[in-house]
Amino acid sequence: MAEFTMELNDEQKEVRDWLHGFAADVIRPAAAEWDEREETPWPVIQEAAKVGIYSLDFYAQQYFDPTGLGIPMAMEELFWGDAGIALSIVGTGLAAVGVLANGTEEQIGTWIPQMYGDANDVKVAAFCSSEPDAGSDVASMRTRAVYDEAKDEWVINGTKTWATNGGIANVHVVVAVVDPELGSKGHASFIIPPNTPGLSQGQKFKKHGIRASHTAEVVLENVRVPGSCLLGGKEKLDERLARARERAKQGGERVKNAAMATFEASRPAVGAMAVGTARAAYEVALDYAKTREQFGRPIIDNQGVAFQLADMRTSVDAARLLVWRASWMAINGRPFTAAEGSMSKLFASETAKKVTAQAIQILGGNGYTREYPVERMHRDAAIYTIFEGTSEIQRLVIARTLSGMPIR
Ligand SMILES: Cc1cc2nc3c(=O)[nH]c(=O)nc-3n(C[C@H](O)[C@H](O)[C@H](O)COP(=O)(O)OP(=O)(O)OC[C@H]3O[C@@H](n4cnc5c(N)ncnc54)[C@H](O)[C@@H]3O)c2cc1C
């Protein structure tokens, strides 16, 4: 097990500087344009593919970094560049991790390369779990997968919503109900291969922020996929369902609580995205406060402004520390006895919202315009307290974990 450290090693520093260069030279200059266009920034994704940032190899290298700092460091740098474009770059990775974590070796080898495509023909992937009536309440999911034994096929019907890259993805990973009696323990994930009949894009959402990232409904009408598209395989699913039925007999509440904690290990990565946005806004505000003069002196000469900057930087650093701790715990299999993953996501996402608002205030009228990036960063920051579990759900998970009580 790697010791917890706050010091990046030489190799990590090199990767961080390389990512920072890409974020500063390629992502940041393109941010305003793609925010206005509200479209997937394919040319930027292609650039990222050419240099090796948009690839499974890169993602897997960071994901399996034994210090746990690879993913948070990479997320922070890319999202420092711009949240919408960065989400377009890492969105595929989120779907790929679903396959890496639950898929068989054959599934990993077959589907992940098709999620990324190659530098000349880049593709993206989508992870589709949320539904119109099942957001925070994952157990209310209705999309149904039924096994057709005669053909060894799964038949999937339902509507997914809020899917990042939904409908434009080459490969969709779809979570569906296989046993309605078991709540979220009766769910399974399926690969929907490219061009599968019955899968279509529904509404594409016009969003407040991260507008360069495509978000849409995904409609599944009698979608048939081979048995081999069930992630992990049928035998493993049957064993898991049998265990869940046994546990359900002992008490439904336990089943529900476990479901809420499922994302504990992946939440710090979202926290790291928020740290990137918060740090970016803080840096813009610091520079501005040092150069903008009113009453014959830089505005940072006023304690009212300087103290805000001190608080902003303190919060950003505190958020990063929580994220790094949780990421280290996740890679080393440490139990999240105080829901440290949720804690990191909660604090970092609330920090991003607050710090970006403070940055607008420090830039005054300029902060409120699209001539300066903090306005966009503030719109972008609002997503962190919503996706991958809202702030309220994080508080619920933390409170339940700390108390052992079924708090509502
Ligand atoms: C831009 C974007 C991208 C997304 N990408 C994806 C994706 O790629 N794949 C995917 O599957 N999903 C994705 N999501 C969905 C996201 O995870 C959900 O929006 C989120 O889980 C919240 O669900 P909801 O929107 O239905 O809100 P609701 O669950 O309806 O919540 C509404 C409000 O009620 C509060 N609330 C609900 N229950 C409780 C409770 N028990 N206690 C206290 N407060 C509560 C919430 O905190 C929130 O403030 C994305 C969403 C957005 C906006």
TrEMBL record:
Keywords: FAD, Flavoprotein, Oxidoreductase. Residues 258-402 form the Acyl-CoA dehydrogenase/oxidase C-terminal domain. The keyword Cell inner membrane does not apply. Residues 9-115 form the Acyl-CoA dehydrogenase/oxidase N-terminal domain. Residues 126-223 form the Acyl-CoA oxidase/dehydrogenase middle domain. Its cofactor is FAD. InterPro entries: Acyl-CoA_DH_CS (IPR006089), Acyl-CoA_Oxase/DH_mid-dom (IPR006091), Acyl-CoA_Oxase/DH_mid-dom_sf (IPR046373), AcylCo_DH-like_C (IPR036250), AcylCo_DH/oxidase_C (IPR009075), AcylCoA_DH/ox_N (IPR013786), AcylCoA_DH/ox_N_sf (IPR037069), AcylCoA_DH/oxidase_NM_dom_sf (IPR009100). It comes from the Bacteria. The keyword Phosphoprotein does not apply. Belongs to the acyl-CoA dehydrogenase family. This is Acyl-CoA dehydrogenase family protein. It comes from Streptomyces gilvifuscus. The lineage of its organism: Bacteria, Bacillati, Actinomycetota, Actinomycetes, Kitasatosporales.
